């Protein structure tokens, strides 16, 4: 994925941490070869060459547009992200997609859909519903996209923090809801840069008051504790930190 490539070294590889047969251990992998679950978005009942259309067509479209926005975010000359609307929509859609890109989430969504069919709330078509099919319509939610792009967007740079930022297969730090005044979203977008969306100046000032060391430590703690299977790093300097946290699968909570 384009997002993970920000953690890759000159060889195109990053450090992947995962629970292995001898515990949580790192290994060097290419960004494109990690975290992928074959058949995750497969749609049974379609011709074999079209069963992965959600991944090969729709999700690729989401990522390609978001990659353009990410490039602009990493531009050193920007602080406030006054993007054209199409950029903000693309990045908002990508942020929303990150909350679904997990086998656990797809499994839970499938269970909910099956229960609705069994209860008569949804009429079962000739070919049974699969959760992956609803992704395109879910990610087009005007309500969610509107709330995300109405927030103030900035990037923070932590060049003086002791440790680089980590990321994971569940990297978004967010409040439970986007409307309340304290609503905010934090996402590491490189080993030294994070994205922040917020509603009020009070939230911004609270986060900005933290030292770079404290902020990096809190972000890393969140993205590691809430990871499902994978944590990613630019180097292996935080192995002990990751080993103590990966596997907790904590609920995503606001930045304290």
Give the tags.
256 residues, alpha+beta, 4-stranded antiparallel sheet, 8 helices, 36% helix, 16% strand, globular
Summarize the entry for a quick read:
The chain is an alpha+beta fold. It has 8 helices and 8 strands, in the order ββαααααβββββααβα. The protein has one domain (4-8, 19-243).
List the helices and strands and how they pair.
Blueprint: E1 13-20, E2 23-30, H1 53-73, H2 85-98, H3 103-118, H4 135-139, H5 142-150, E3 152-157, E4 167-168, E5 173-174, E6 184-188, E7 193-198, H6 201-208, H7 212-225, E8 231-233, H8 239-243
Antiparallel strand pairs: 1-2, 1-8, 3-7, 4-8, 5-6, 6-7
Distance between the termini: 29 Å
* Widest sheet: strand ordering: 2-1-8-4
Number of contiguous helices: 8
Structural class: alpha+beta
How many DSSP-defined strands? 8
Shape: globular
Main pleated sheet:
4 strands, antiparallel
Radius of gyration: 19 Å
Helix-residue proportion: 25-40%
Topology as H/E string?
EEHHHHHEEEEEHHEH
